[in-house]
Amino acid sequence: MHVPRGLLAVGLTALLLTAGVAGGLGGVAAQSGSDCSYPLTVTDSTGTEITIEEEPETVVTLAPSAAQTMYEIGAQEKVIGISDRGTYLDWDEEKEIVSGDEGFVNTERVIAQDPDIVLAPNIISEEKVEQLRDAGLTVYHFGASETMDDVVEKTRLIGQLTGECEAADAKATEMEQTLDTVAEAVDGEDSPPVLYVFAGYTSGEGTFIDEILTTAGATNVASEAGISGFQMVSDEVVANQSPEWIVVNDEAPGIPDKEAYNGTPAVQNDQIITVNAHSISQAAPRTVDVVEHIASELHPDAYESAQATTTADTQNEDTTAVTTETEAPGFGPIVALLALGGAAFLRRD
């Protein structure tokens, strides 16, 4: 059936207007969780109650995880200051470096920026935070992210603190969907022994990298060997644990040319996974990419199947949404036909 373009345009307009009348309040309600409202009062990890009177226009991030989050939610223009470790991000314009010669926060440089809010990840000392507060700045200090869910919620929180709720919620939802796909892929699968090594060090129990590995469906051999925190890994541990996979980062990609390593199934079978150093070391949105990458390497078939299921579910949700919107009173099948024809027309363009 051929639908004239003029009628198509009228039909599409009617469809949009109908959706606005029939589902407008529902649409507003669905987005209410993504809306930022001020004044906003929150309590940070130091137990300090902070009130943000109006939407911040300028933000200083004291560590790269906060800078990465602002970047990933598309709030680059609000960021006016970053640490020297945040320069790896492809900023649209130059940012003021607020760290000193030793990489630590330079209080005077932060104060000179006079930002509306300062984001201080957990690696920033409470003493430094108090110095900035004494200078009259609004500072939010984050607690440590221990799980992937913590990273997701921190993404939403940063959006709330900086007036970027809708974008942050969209990014967080995207992260959740990826993590759900990974969880489905690794469910019921064996957890191969994996070693993360960088410059002779490894990440054991109690580290965020341990959480990354286990979420991706691996057994962290460092934790199994009783290592906690970040420590040097001995040849004995490597040999005894015999990892099937070794994960390295792109800033320290080399594996020691030692018998202990050369004898592992990981090296013998060339099962080495290289990940981005910033993404694996910062509890921020790109961490999810690392989890996904490792899971897809360790469990390729299961991950491919889970990804296909996720894609199918998303397509079904989209189809259901279109069907629901086109069942408004007074239009019915004709409007639905116009909508489908319009979609095809737009795809051709």
Description:
With 349 residues, the chain is an alpha/beta fold. The chain folds into two domains: 40-178, 3-Layer(aba) Sandwich (Rossmann fold), CATH 3.40.50.1980; 190-298, Nitrogenase molybdenum iron protein domain (Rossmann fold), CATH 3.40.50. Helix content is 50%, strand content 13%. The chain contains 15 helices and 13 strands. The chain has helices at 5-31, 64-72, 107-113, 126-134, 148-162, 165-186, 208-215, 221-224, 235-241, 259-262, 265-268, 277-281, 287-298, 300-325, 332-348, and strands spanning 40-43, 49-52, 59-61, 79-82, 96-97, 117-120, 139-141, 193-198, 201-203, 219-220, 230-232, 245-249, 272-275. The strands form three sheets. Strands 8, 9, 10, 11, 12 and 13 form a six-stranded mixed β-sheet that branches. It is globular, with a radius of gyration of 25 Å. The model is unreliable at 1-33 and 322-349 (pLDDT under 50). One of its GO terms (biological process) is cellular response to iron ion. Keywords: Signal. This is Cobalamin ABC transporter substrate-binding protein. InterPro entries: ABC_Transporter_SBP (IPR050902), ABC_transptr_periplasmic_BD (IPR002491), Peripla_PGF_1 (IPR026469), PGF_CTERM (IPR026371).
